[in-house]
């Protein structure tokens, strides 16, 4: 067996064993309908509520969730992508205005809060009907934002007081789903990978130069259609975890799955890590574990919330 195939087999076997281990479950507030999940350097988890327009913190020690950012704070409504910047005590959040929320209507914007206190710091509106979806911090200190409303990626440059267009390209406009374009973002070395809201058999790959500016945009073909790939997380060099929410799919409320994309082989490989999930829209890799949420969007879209319970689940990753 070639070494690449052997290593892939070992990794898959280790993941299968890890899934059998007891995975601690952490509970979120009722009717939370989470969309986003991120982790700080010390292992605390931060979970945004799409329904309540709020953010909760789950301490690393396993203590109960605490409300960090109250509903509607600084105009937060549908909480989408979250990003922790430990070095600057910053918690960044994408806020959208789709409805289905108890928080007041507010235009889509990038929000900044103090990481440890949750106090509001700043708000950066998206220009021209933009929809803030996901965000990533690059090595030059700029925050890159996927715009689901327009075929573009925005940026908050260090020290800037407003967002600017980092990349607008016809390749970003293809394969819209209900008028929406881009979804998750992840950096892996000199490449930014972007998922589409629509179910498509590829990711977008954007090459970066030494200054972190965008160069070529291409489609990275994958072995199958992704089931509404949402958040993307880097597990290691050329290894990306894809959270396939299946929000617009026909598989019912348990069609979502979490998949490892391995780009180290001559052709991309996809390995399912967990399946049978209800809209696993986001997750985080922290301290040797893979964490995820199930958003339950189908229930939210179909009826008013009524005490629906939500959790953060996890599995141990192989060393």
Architecture overview:
The protein has 2 helices and 24 strands. The chain has a 4-stranded antiparallel beta sheet with strand order 1-24-23-22, covered by helices on one side. A 4-stranded antiparallel beta sheet has the order 2-3-4-5, with no helix packed on it. The two termini are 22 Å apart.
Give, in order, the helices and strands: HEEEEEEEEEEEEEEEEEEEEEEEHE
Q: List low-confidence stretches.
A: 1-10, 16-22
Structural class: mainly beta
Number-wise, the strands total: 24
State mean pLDDT (0 to 100 scale): 91
Cross-sheet strand order for the largest sheet: 1-24-23-22
Gross morphology: globular
Main pleated sheet: 4 strands, antiparallel
Distance between the termini: 22 Å
Structural Rg: 18 Å
Q: Percent of residues in beta strands?
A: over 45%
Number of helices: 2
Amount of helix: under 10%
Task: Summarize the SSE layout with pairings.
Layout: H1 3-19, E1 26-28, E2 34-39, E3 45-49, E4 54-58, E5 66-69, E6 78-85, E7 90-96, E8 109-114, E9 120-125, E10 132-137, E11 143-147, E12 152-156, E13 164-168, E14 182-188, E15 191-196, E16 202-208, E17 214-221, E18 229-236, E19 239-244, E20 256-262, E21 269-277, E22 283-286, E23 289-293, H2 297-302, E24 310-316
Antiparallel strand pairs: 1-24, 2-3, 3-4, 4-5, 6-7, 7-8, 8-9, 10-11, 11-12, 12-13, 14-15, 15-16, 16-17, 18-19, 19-20, 20-21, 22-23, 23-24
């Amino acid at each position: 067996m070639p070494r690449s195939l052997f290593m892939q087999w070992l990794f898959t076997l280790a993941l299968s064993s890890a899934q059998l281990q007891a995975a601690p479950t952490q509970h979120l507030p009722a009717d939370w309908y989470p969309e986003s999940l991120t982790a700080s350097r010390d292992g605390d988890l931060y979970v945004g509520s799409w329904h309540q327009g709020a953010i909760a913190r789950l301490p690393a020690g396993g203590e109960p969730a605490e409300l960090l950012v109250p509903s509607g704070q600084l105009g937060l409504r549908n909480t989408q992508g979250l990003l922790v910047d430990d070095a600057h005590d910053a918690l960044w959040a994408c806020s959208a205005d789709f409805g289905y929320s108890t928080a007041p209507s507010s235009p889509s914007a990038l929000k900044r809060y103090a990481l440890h206190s949750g106090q509001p710091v700043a708000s950066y509106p998206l220009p021209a009907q933009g929809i803030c979806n996901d965000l990533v911090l690059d090595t030059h200190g700029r925050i890159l934002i996927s715009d689901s409303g327009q075929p573009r990626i925005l940026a908050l440059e260090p020290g800037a007081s407003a967002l600017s267009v980092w990349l607008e390209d016809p390749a970003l406009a293809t394969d819209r789903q209900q008028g929406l374009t881009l979804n998750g973002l992840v950096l892996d070395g000199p490449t930014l990978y972007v998922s589409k809201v629509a179910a498509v058999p590829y990711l977008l790959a954007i090459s970066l130069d030494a200054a972190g500016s965008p160069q070529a945009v291409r489609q990275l073909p994958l072995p199958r259609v992704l089931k509404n790939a949402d958040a993307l997380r880097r597990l290691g060099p050329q290894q990306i975890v894809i959270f396939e929410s299946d929000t617009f799919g026909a598989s019912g409320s348990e069609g979502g799955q979490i998949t490892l994309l391995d780009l180290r082989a001559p052709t991309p490989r996809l390995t399912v890590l967990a399946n049978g999930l209800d809209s696993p829209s986001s997750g985080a890799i922290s301290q040797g574990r893979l964490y995820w949420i199930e958003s339950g969007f189908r229930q939210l879209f179909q009826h008013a919330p009524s005490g629906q319970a939500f959790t953060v689940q996890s599995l141990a990753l192989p060393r």
